[in-house]
Structure formats: structure tokens, C-alpha cells
Amino acid sequence: MFEKILIANRGEIACRVIKTARRMGIKTVAVYSDADRDAVHVAMADEAVHIGPAPAAQSYLVIEKIIEACKQTGAQAVHPGYGFLSEREAFPKALAEHGIVFIGPNPGAIAAMGDKIESKKAAAEANVSTVPGFLGVIESPEHAVKIADEIGYPVMIKASAGGGGKGMRIAESADEVKEGFERAKSEASSSFGDDRVFVEKFITDPRHIEIQVIGDKHGNVIYLGERECSIQRRNQKVIEEAPSPLLDEETRRKMGEQAVALAKAVNYDSAGTVEFVAGQDKSFYFLEMNTRLQVEHPVTEMITGLDLVELMIRVAAGEQLPLAQDDVKLNGWAVESRVYAEDPTRNFLPSIGRLTTYQPPEEGQFGEAIVRNDTGVEEGGEIAIHYDPMIAKLVTWAPTRIQAIESQARALDAFAIDGIRHNIPFLATLMAHPRWREGALSTGFIKEEFPEGFTAPQPEGKVALRLAAVAAAIDHKLNVRKRGISGQMRDPSLLAFQRERVVVLSGQRFEVTVDTVGNDLLVTAADGAVVPVRSAWRPGEPVWSGTVGDEPVAIQVRPLLNGVFLQHAGAAAEARVFTRREADLADLMPVKESANSGKQLLCPMPGLVKQIMVAEGQEVKNGEALAIVEAMKMENVLRAERDGKVSKIAAKEGDSLAVDAVIMEFE
């Protein structure tokens, strides 16, 4: 077994590998760029080596720097994580030349299956059903349009060396093919150093289901069940689960056996994932193979009880797999949410900055459920523009799917993040969505269910009553605290709280009566229903945890002027608690309207101006592309929201802009 391994990656996956290596008694080496000097993975590892500037092309993607770090520290093997060099055939070859073991598949398997064009050719030769498409290299936008016209729309334009949603576009017309081709090539070049793309038919109403395989160097390959990854946005997975609510045992076996046959055909000898696009009728087609550890591997670990990173390390060291196919048993259900630094209310645009608050939910077993949080950040850390916007992967396991979803919902409510925008409100909303809970999924789910984008819903029904009760409880605790301040003009004992209160939740009015009985606060609603509220919450804590009625509840709490902002189960509301007289007076206060910035194009997120597509004095039409801004390896096309004329261009290509910086102005 290895005595020391180097992790050629960063963030949560580097931390994940370090945890397993530490448990196995293996020393670890981290590598880091200028931007990651103070990162968590650097502190966790036994040693750390600086490998260059922040851009990945000058640090994490430079093979020579990784090899030099191995030589410097005496690392015997390298785990690549995912992304970066993990699927680059040249990487394990270069390592082997220096006597360093690659903890991943052999170069031949990577060449055959890691490249999406070559993998489809290999699958076709193995008589595996594949999605119709063009498997050659496409040289120009015109060539791409010709191919798309022959295949039939819609089509998927995809980077050959891509992954993680980068270098991928869906096009429904010739014009969209032209634009998507250029964007996919550019993203693929900057993210993977390989700008080749291909085109294939996009299956309508599909599901994305993948099979986890693991092989060793002795010819053994097994599959570890499937993962459902259909909840996606811009081809980037958002929520994953295992097993899939679609599959039955027979379909699972067929997909698994096909995945194993494909892996054996290329002598696959590590962890890998065979991805399928599946119809609602359980038909399926080979999509691609990822010759690395997947982001969503924890859900497979939770239902199998296996540590995939440990298996990868043992296989790389020459050991045989410790189990056969018949030994693989699937137990319970696991759900994973990807917590991203992005603003769901602004079309999920990336958000960067410092994590002034980072308090994940407690990990461990709670009743029958288990909570796990894989992360690579900590409070006070910084989310930089240079890398993927993932903050954490929140995973829950339970005996049934609904229990796992409910556990995930509670954990999301208890996850406190401030300093940047994040997608937890969106994830919490998804957990409560009836279609998600029913398992009626497709890769178009988010687009279909949120066609106008995401806005945190106003609280309704039980959620609204719960928030009103907690708002009243918070107000009561704050009042008690104020009465305890020394030096007041009147003795606090002479003051009596008014029991009758009015809770206003973003315009909704709830008349309640508040009483104290022992450690409980009894909130009586207007209809006479009495709700006991109990919590050890203290002012200043970002999460209110306790019980409302008999139900355990976690609610996000942020102070506002004369109130608090509450977020729970995806719903958000400003809450203010008044006496009856105060509430009547508050109704008379005018509402200030926000200013209109419709005559400016503002940068929606911190980013790099890649291209200005118009000139001063140019007439533009609604929907016309104006500029391209790159952030976190994704290129975002900014379009005109109405017809107009460009009067001034305030930014130039190559500029790094802050959020809401003016890019151009209109007459």
C-alpha cells in the first residue's frame, strides 16, 4: 500500500480524498494555486506545494508542476479527483514515466472511453445502443448546422473532453447551433484545453441515469447500482439520488450488465461511470463514460456502504476487488444537493466573495436518517472567480425516498451561509415540490417547473403559520432581552407585555396571542388553534432550531430594521411583529419603490468581459446579444431586454467587473 499520495485537485473533492487516505493511514500532499493559499484542503493535508497562479491553465492543469510536486514530497501516487487532469490520457502516461502511480484507470481506457467521441465509437463497436449523432470532429459553425439539419432538432452540442456541464449547449434552430458551437468550443478550450465538440440528437423528456462501475487490474468489473441525475440546469446536475425512482430490478440489471460489458471491453480498472439517457418507458441509450470519480459518488456510497475512494486507492495499489457482483446490496435511499455560490433569483448567475457565515447542518445519524456534508470551505474563506462555484454537497440517507427527502429538507433549512448569494432557497423549494417528491422527473424539470426563473415563494398554509408563530417567539425573546438591559428609566418589572400581537409576513397579517407556560411559548392563532413553540435560540444566531407544535423545525433568521427575515422550506418572508395599534399605524406607511435601471446594461455577477458585441450608436433589438461575461468557467451571454440604441460603452474586453458595474448605456 502507498505511504503517501498527492491529490491533484482542490476544494471539496481534495478534502474528501484526504479523509479516506487519513483513515487508511496514508499521508497526503495537497497542491494549491495563489487563490487557494489559505484553502481548507491545504490545511488538511500533511504537506502542501504551491503550483502557480490562480488560473487553472497555469496551475492545476500543468502536468509538469504536479510531477515536480510529487518528486519534491516523495508522493508515490496521485489521485486526480474530478475535473482538471482527471480524464486527460497524457496525465497517467506522464506519471508512469516518472514511476508515479495514477489512482484512476489506465491510459488506454481513458483514451477509449474518456473522450466522448471515441467512447461513442467504442460503444457502437460493442453493439451498445447509442443516441443518433455525428461522431467526427466538427470544424466550423456551418458544418455543425449541416449536421444538425440532418439529425433533426433539437440537438446537443457537447465538448469532446467536457464534463460538469461545461462546453455543452442545446440548440433548437440553425442560429442556436451557430452560437452554441462557438460558446461550447470556447468553454471547452478554457476549461479542458481541448476545443473539439460533437453534435448528437437531444432526446425529448429524457431522464439522466448513470451506472457506477469499479474494476481492478485482475479483470474483475462490477456495477454498484444507479444514480438518477435528471434534476439539471444548463446540463449541470443540481440534485442526485440513488437508486432511481424509475428503474425496476430488471432494467437495473440490464443497464448494469451493459455498463460492465463496456468497461471490460476497454480493460477498465478503476472507478468510472457509464451514463445513459433513459426514456420514461425505461428504454435507455449509452450517452458517455466518465473515467473518473463522479461528483455525486456519495449517494452510491450511502446505499452500498462502500468507500469508492478507498476502492480506487486499493485497486491502484494492485489489490483485487474485495467483493463480487452478488455481494453488492442496495440499502435505503440517498439524496444529494449541490450547494452552489450562485444567485437563483438572478438566473443563477455566479456569486463570489467572502463567507462571512458558514454553518452547515450537523453531520451524523438522527433517528433513522443520516446527514453528510462534503465541503472544501470554511467560515471566513473566499469563493473565487477562477473555479467551479460549488460550496458543498449535502447528502442525506434514510430507509425510504420520502424520508431521505424530508431529512434533506430539514438539513437545507439548517444550512446557514452569508456573505455571498447561494442556491439553498432553490434547493429547499425543490425538496417541497410535488413533482419531485412523486419522482416524475426529466432533465427538463427545472425549465418546465420554473419557466420564468426562480423567485422564493411567499409562505402559505402550514409554512406561513409556522413562520408567524416563530416570528412571534423571536419578538418575545428580543423583548425579554431588551427589558433586561440595565440603567433603564423605568423599572422593567413595572412593564407588562401586550399579549395580543400582529405578525406581518410580507403583507400577510396574522393576529395572535402570546403566552408563556414554563419553557414553552404558546402562540394562539385567530381561529383559536394553540401552537406550543420551544427553542434554545439566542439572538444573533442565524438558524432558529426548535419545535413548533410537535414538529422539529429549522428556520433561517436574518435581522431587519424593526423585524427579521425568515426562510424555511423554500419560502421567504420579511416578518414584523406589532401590537394591534402599531399594526394599524404601519398600514398607513408609504412603500418606497426601487429605481429603474432599464437604460443600462449592468454586469450581473463579478466576471471577465470576454466580448463586446455591439458598438456605440448601434441600434439593438430585444433579445440581441450585447456582451459575453465569463465567471467560474462559464460564459454568459447578456442580451438586450428591449429595443434601443447604444449611447455609451463603459467596459472593454478583458475588463474584470464587479456585480452591477455598468457595461453600456442606452438612449
From TrEMBL:
Keywords associated with the record: ATP-binding, Biotin, Ligase, Lipid degradation, Lipid metabolism, Magnesium, Manganese, Metal-binding, Nucleotide-binding
EC class: ligase
Pfam families: Biotin_carb_C, Biotin_carb_N, Biotin_lipoyl, CPSase_L_D2, PCC_BT
EC assignment: 6.4.1.3
Cofactor: biotin
Record carries keyword GTP-binding: no
Catalytic activity: propanoyl-CoA + hydrogencarbonate + ATP = (S)-methylmalonyl-CoA + ADP + phosphate + H(+)
UniProt cross-references to InterPro entries, sorted A to Z: ATP-grasp, BC-like_N, Biotin_BS, Biotin_carboxylase_complex, Biotin_carboxylation_dom, Biotin_COase_C, Biotin_lipoyl, CPAse_ATP-bd
Ranges where the Lipoyl-binding domain occurs: 592-667
Gene3D superfamilies on file: 2.40.50.100, 3.30.700.30, ATP-grasp fold, B domain
PROSITE patterns (alphabetical): ATP_GRASP, BC, BIOTIN, BIOTINYL_LIPOYL, CPSASE_1, CPSASE_2
ATP-grasp domain mapped to chain residues: 120-317
Pathway assigned in UniProt: Metabolic intermediate metabolism; propanoyl-CoA degradation; succinyl-CoA from propanoyl-CoA: step 1/3
Limits of the Biotin carboxylation domain: 1-451
Name of this chain's protein: propionyl-CoA carboxylase
Species this chain originates from: Methylorubrum suomiense
GN (gene name): accA1
